[in-house]
Known about the structure:
The complex is a heterotrimer of chains A (405), B (322) and C (112). In chain A, helix 4 runs antiparallel to helix 11 and helix 4 (104-132) runs antiparallel to helix 13. The longest helix of chain A is centred in the first third of the chain and has 29 residues, at 104-132. Chain A contains 14 helices and ten strands. Chain A is α+β, with helices and mostly antiparallel strands. Chain A has a three-stranded antiparallel sheet, with no helix packed on it. A three-stranded antiparallel sheet of chain A has the order 6-7-8. Chain A has a two-stranded antiparallel ribbon with strand order 4-5. In chain A, 45% of the residues lie in helices and 14% in strands. Chain B has 322 residues and is mainly α. Chain B has one domain (64-321). Chain B has twelve helices and no strands. Chain B has helices at residues 2-11, 16-37, 53-63, 74-93, 109-130, 134-165, 170-178, 189-202, 214-217, 227-252, 265-290, 296-321. In chain B, helix 10 crosses helix 11. The longest helix of chain B has 32 residues, at 134-165. The relative contact order of chain B is 0.15. By secondary structure, chain C is of the alpha+beta class. Chain C has one domain (30-111): Alpha-Beta Plaits (2-Layer Sandwich). Chain C has helices spanning 2-11, 50-54, 83-87, and strands at 38-40, 60-65, 68-74, 93-95, 110-111. In chain C, strands 2-3-5 form a three-stranded antiparallel sheet, with no helix packed on it. Chain A binds chain B through residues 19-22, 27-29, 40, 42-43, 130-138, 140-141, 144, 204-207, 209-210, 360-365, and chain B through 37-40, 134-135, 138, 141-142, 206-207, 209-210, 213-218, 289-298.
Amino acid sequence: MQKEEFQRTEKKSAYELFFDMPVGPQHPALKEPAFFKFKVEGERVIGVDADVSYNHRGIEKALEYRNYIQNIYLIERICGICNVAHTLCYAQAVEQLHGKEIPPRANYIRLMIEELARIHSHALWLGVAAHEIGFDTLFMYVWRDREVVMDIIEMLTGNRVTTAINTIGGVRRDVSDEAKYKVKKGMDILEERLKYYRNVALNDPTVNARCSDVGILKPRDAIRLCAVGPTLRASGVKNDVRLDDPYTLHDEVPFNIVTCDTMDVLGRVVVRVDEMLESVNMVRYCLEHMPNGDVKIKLSLSPPVGEAISRVEAPRGELIHYARSNGTKNPERYKVRTPTFGNIPAVCDMLTSKGDYEVNIADIPITLASIDPCFSCTARMEFRDVSKSKTWVWSLEELKAHCKK
Amino acid sequence: MEWLLELLQILIFPGIVFAIVLAFVYEWFDRKIYAKLQNRVGPLYTGKSGILQPFADFVKLLAKEDITPGEVDKPLFNALPIVALTLSLMGFLALPITGLRGIISFNGDLIFLIALMTLICIVIIYSGISSSNRFSTVGAERAALQLLGYEIPMMLSAISIGILAGSMWVYDIVNTQVSGIWFLVGPSILGFAIFVLCGQAELERIPFDIPEAETEIVAGWLTEFSGKKLALFRLTKDVELLYLSGLAVALFLGGPSGPVISGLEPILYPIYFLLKTLFVLFLLTTLRALFARLRIDQMVNFSWKYLVPLAILQVLLVRVIV
Amino acid sequence: MSMLKEIQRSLFKKRATVLYPFKERERVHIPDGLRGKISFDRDKCTGCLLCSRFCPSGACEIVTDEKGKRPVFHLELCLFCSQCQEVCPKGAINLTEEFELAAFDRKAFTIK
Lengths: 405, 322, 112
């Protein structure tokens, strides 16, 4: 489906009656604090201003005061839902500093847990998205079936959400044969249910009415605004860290990159459901091909001096960690870029009416949700002028301007 | 003694107290079935399987702080919850429950009953605007647009029944149904479907809960109401739910009538009324569980593209038969 | 209309909810190896203090008793990451499967 090019010129309003509608920092559509100021004319949204710096936790600074082992558990708490992606990325960065490879069985387990976490994150998102369009029945069903994967994760790692499975040099727990059998059974249940949800997303009249042609992000804009993850792939751009820069075993385990060229929210729903189905197959492949052997190698507590960058495809998109070591037990500098941060310019673009493309107030929650936002992960940029003892946070515009420079 | 009996009828059974108690029970039933359809349990701990939960919610809200924001239109803001409750209770009094006539019953009362529903909607619009809140204003705007959507097909489907009975008196309509023709299996099934769908819109329930869409505009026109006022509005919604299902029963399902043993009518009629309204309520709840919320433009589109033509078709069909 | 079928099916299906805190406790399935409340064996502890060095949240306080140095765990600070269990060379620390930790008294959160 090819959409016509939107006209960039603002349509002149008939009434000239605007008001600002605040969404956030506390709003039923947002599960985390963020502020969006919408310029609204009746039901039509004509402009949006975003501010995501409501929850600065100072994690990057805190990382510099803890040793590498303690940092695993702090990194895990940047984001509860994609904690596996964060620990994986961190462990990779530190292993890169060491220059060591981990055993193949550990790699298989890492990949399996990563894909299970992707299923759980996308299922969570699907439920939230259903709730945003007022479809509470679907929300309840999805979250009920999500319990299958939650139970599997709990059985494999010892906790439902914060898995704490990846560590520097491998994984902390092995997978027993009994557990493998249970995972296999769970995957069969999930596959059937996921196919059903795919059918609902594609065929339910009200879901279609609310999701198709809403939150349009054209491929060119998606690339220009640096969108990442399923948001980008739903615009038809084939981009995935697992394919572009394979880590763990993504070059060995077969999988397809799911893209969708409808460019709208429905496309993002379909991309995520299909990705879950792909993940189910990857988990099955891991179970069958898992070699025997160790799951962990011992690494020294202070990695050698150096720098490392590691990238992981988190459920929400590309996650980048940067680590610099000065040879001591604590990292000298650690930097995290979360995928939601990359998607915020794109969501602002989606939420602005241009030409024939109309955004209604009713489309705000589902469009915001369609990038799977995780705003609390994003706020980590703060400036401090020590001489004047003044602290401030850069807005998105300032950041953009700074990037252009 | 005649007046005392009448007063008791209005105040207690089948009047105001009965309506309020029944409204709470119906809200419980609605929540319980909704939960069942979603594979949940619903209210559980207050009373037997949570039957007192709506009442507990009501009492809790009554005890909460009642905030009147500085910018609101105070007289309007304070009066509207009471007006809304009065209107919905007045509608309930006109429903036939213990006999084939309601407490308020006069020739042409069908028009009065439909006008009451419109009035409740207008109260909603006023309460949204008097709040001077952005979300409330948007909610009121949506309520007004939605009124344009559902009101006409609803009236047409009610009027088609009036044409079939040859009268605009609910008593006559119920009587016609009792004396032979069971309307639903006949030509009025389409009218019943339209009436139930529009009722869903009138009650602002999914898929038509657009004026108070939670995730979009917080609580819509209800945003600024708190404490007692919110409690009264919620009670209004419950009574309205009861009233609408009662009206659907009176118009399409033969009112409180059914097979009776002579002499036991005052006992059997309310039972039939309860069973039939619960059936309508079950339909309303299923609709609520089945769909996502529509957008306001989609709702008005749907109603003018499908509901209005179908309602006109229904009137024509009835005209041909009569 | 796949949704309608699913709704019909739910109407006759047993609820998915587990009425956990008051009834149906047996339906709560706890897998082996859940990271729950910490148990500590004083006899095995040699006082090497590794647990305290690696605890990410400072939940592991070191005190001195008649036998020497030992850890005291504060569950209100604990992340339940089981790092202390992993580094303990003598296996004195164990994370049990007990997960109902709510208490009115702060003392209940201190594991000695």
